[in-house]
Amino acid sequence: MSALFEPYALREVTIPNRVWMPPMCQYSAAPEGPDTGAPDDWHFAHYAARAAGGTGLIVVEATGVSPEGRISPWDLGIWNDTQVEAFRRITRFLVSQGTVPAIQLAHAGRKASTDRPWKGGAPVGPDSYGWQPVAPSAIPFAEGHPVPTELTVDGIQEVVGRFADAARRALAAGFEIAEIHGAHGYLINEFLSPHSNHRTDEYGGSYENRTRFALQVVDAVRAVWPQDKPLFFRISATDWLEKDGWTADDTVRFAADLKAHGIDLLDVSTGGNASGVHIPVGPGYQVPFAARVKAETSLPVAAVGLITDAEQAEKIVANDEADAVLLGRELLRNPSWARHAARELGGDVHVPDQYHRSV
User: Fold this and answer.
1) Mean pLDDT of the chain
2) How many helices (H) and strands (E) does the chain have?
3) pLDDT per residue over 113-161, tens digit each?
4) What kind and span of H or E run contains 333?
């Protein structure tokens, strides 16, 4: 039996294989009107294709817990019931294919209110559906980005509440797993890193203070998320800075804290919080960070980062470097990657009856 196609159980949820789809923004939701932030036909077709292709777990893209929490005006959101109803169509289909539906709950912080990547990704203002970003400190992400508004303590608590409300709606929408987005330079990551967090109150300075907001979000979500359902946390294991940034050592330490607060799996990525840094991108370049967390803690991990072929993915799981792999760009190129990998590795994967001739 291929290690990649062994089922994986967390709490009372069993994922049929270790081929997972990470959150990848589609920037395709309506930016205004009654359907703002709601998934549409594009999102349904996008996720349905990967489920029919055998993907064991699909994590729906970064979904704003509030309008100002979106990365762009064209991102998904889960702050109202219209969005919940639209998501139900997607989760029903994923479940019908044996795929476990998950959702990433996110707040973009100082990197919010930007254009779509294929339009350049620059910050947008009110004339293009934009808004004023917020952050732990009034420090812009990069040159050309606006100075964000520094959150007050009351503002921080409001965001914590928004995450809890979003989790309740995610449950109503049919998701089996929720993931808290603490990576890629978005709001939670901004609080974690001394590069972006220059506060002098109880939310800044020491490691304990900088992690306070993240753990409050985790506690608030875990309090409303059912005990029989898993809760993930996505982290950038390093800022890729030589000094004054979040490090791999911090990640290992924080993993133990997250587990104590009810996180079931750490989704390990890197970078995104500091502009202009050198990142040694290459096949599996982020896997060692996941492997270190797995080796040094008891928290399960998923690995991501240019994982493209079946043998490579199989070795990561079989060698105990990670409990699962997340394929991003490769699943964009090939929605049926899991089915093809199962054929190559001798694993079993769900194939829709309508596609029985392809087996």
Assistant:
1) 97
2) 11, 12
3) 999 999 999 999 999 999 999 999 999 999 999 999 999 999 999 999 9
4) helix 329-333
- Work out the average pLDDT over 77-90: 98
Find, among 112, 90, 86, 111, the residue nearest to 102 by Cα: 90
Active site residues: 186
> In this predicted structure, what is the pLDDT of residue 163?
98
Angle, vertex CA 348, rays to CA 346 and CA 350, nearest 5 = 145
User: Quick one: angle between helices 337-345 and 310-318, nearest 10?
Assistant: 70
- Predicted confidence band at 356 (pLDDT cuts at 50, 70, 90)? confident
pLDDT by residue (tens digit) across 207-232? Answer: 999 999 999 999 999 999 999 999 99
Residue whose structure tokens are 């979040």: 246
What six digits make up the tokens of 161? 């509440």
Q: Could you write out the three-class secondary structure of 20-84? A: EECCCCCCCCECCCCCECCCCHHHHHHHHHHHHCCCCEEEEEEEECCHHHCCCCCCCECCCHHHH
Crossing angle (nearest 10°) for helices 81-96 and 153-172: 50
Question: Quick check: 151 and 159 in contact, CB under 8 A?
Answer: yes
Q: What distance separates the 2 farthest-apart alpha carbons in the chain?
A: 63
**Cα(359)–Cα(356) distance, integer angstroms:** 6
Predicted local confidence at residue 359, as pLDDT: 74
Q: How far is CA 128 from CA 27, 31, 42, 115, 119, in A?
A: 14, 9, 22, 9, 12
State how beta strands 57-64 and 19-21 pair: parallel
The CA-CA-CA angle for residues 214, 58, 313, to 5°, reads: 95
The reported pTM is: 0.97
- Give the Cα separation of 330 and 93 in Å (integer): 22
